[in-house]
Amino acid sequence: MTALTLSTSSAAALRADAVVVGLAKGPKGPRLAPGAEAVDAAFDGRLTATLETLGASGAEGEATKLPAPAGVKAAVVLAVGLGDAPEDGEGYDPEALRKAAGVAGRALAGSKKAAFALPIAGAADIEAIAVGALLGAYSFTAYQSQNGSAGKGSLGEVAVVGAKPRDKEHKAAAERAVAVAEEVNRARDLVNMPSNDLDPKAFAAQVQAAGKEFGLKVEVLDEKALAKGGYGGILGVGRGSATPPRLVRVAYKHPKATRTLAFVGKGITYDSGGISLKPAGHNETMKCDMSGAAAVFGAVVAAAKLGLAVNVTGWLALAENMPGGNATRPGDVLRMYSGKTVEVLNTDAEGRLVLADALARASEESPDAIVDVATLTGAMVLALGDGRFGIMANDDDFRTAVHATALAQGEDSWPMPLPKQLRKTFDSPTADIANMGVRPGGGLIAGLFLKEFVGEGITWAHLDIAGPAFNEGGPFGYTPKGGTGSAVRTLVGLARRTAEGDLL
Ligand code: BES
Ligand code: MN
Ligand code: ZN
Q: Which residues bind Mn(2+) 2 (predicted)?
């Protein structure tokens, strides 16, 4: 990944390929953001006017490159839009800094080193700029013979100007940024990896390797262990595939921890729909259906890298949902790990089946809270669009806390209800419940189904990331095309808050 350094030298004096400055939208036209002073001086104070003449307005997403004058060591100056300038006396919104840094990280693909001279009012801004730049610089080129279709590598080094490498808070902010960005990017890599290379077995092997590297305890239940344990949901979904399912437990423990969080991820390495086969047009991106498991995996590793004083256990419910001679049929009844029976009316509602077993198993360890993450329903995408995930919970205060944590990390989300009246829509004439209810409120019905498998008295939240997990459009801000690493930052934020005694 792109390297991160902190630099106290002047933006003009720093040896780099490019220097990044911020341009904000003021009431009377664009204005340079603090941090750009030395560069502006080298332009004889005419940088704002030059940028305006070139058509820059300071709008979010804007990137304007111009040759640097004598007096600036770097060859190129890149001005990125910060959106509306803050009111006098107020700082820049961290998300505006993340997005602008992300645009720069992307625009400088192929460069060795860039100096980021964006406005910094404190350590939180250093973290925001670093996270944005490292996430924006991400590219997935593993399957391209030329190291990227454009033949460029990603930006080699991000130097944050105005941050002091010897300042404890600045250093900690940088370390957090690196750990979080690395793990968001790990999740993105896993999501982008095609299903022919990332099946349940290969995914489990990656967790085992990371477990060795970061001192995590990893247990993998294979198909035999799943059968012995009675995991009817996970087995029922995986039966149609040539590659059998897995349940992975990956645990990070801290000796001083007083709280334990359980994160549960949907890990359908490919969702064809099964016998209720998805039509063409709905299956091209379904390698992304393990995004929840990828987010959980990344979050547990990030907690370990940061040494957070909290125990975090990740549960990855891995299966490939395929039609086949041995596949579960619509109408079949599964006996779940919890003992409940489920009539499978639609094999494409598979995520809730694998999660049900993982939630019931996670509940046995009585964690202080469970958060599950899943690309669960198309209905949630219709409700909220593809830019934000829905949050459901069995505790209103916890749902509010999860929402606030997501917002603070720059992850768009929205609280959703679990209406009691919808529970009876998945009654089954044959079994305890069915895996599908009516169409209206489909995302909430899926949430209500999961709630049936959460242990009595355990605080639980469910994040339906079907919208934001995979970006089918072009890149924007620090979000690339393809896998986005959705929910990793929210989970790490929750773990951090819990470690700091600010939650649960
Ligand atoms: N993996 C899909 C949900 C999905 C849709 C994820 C779009 C990402 C983008 C899930 O397994 C699914 O197929 N859900 C069905 C449920 C229905 C059959 C009750 C859906 O949403 O249509
Ligand atoms: Mn499905
Ligand atoms: Zn699915």
A: 266, 271, 289, 350
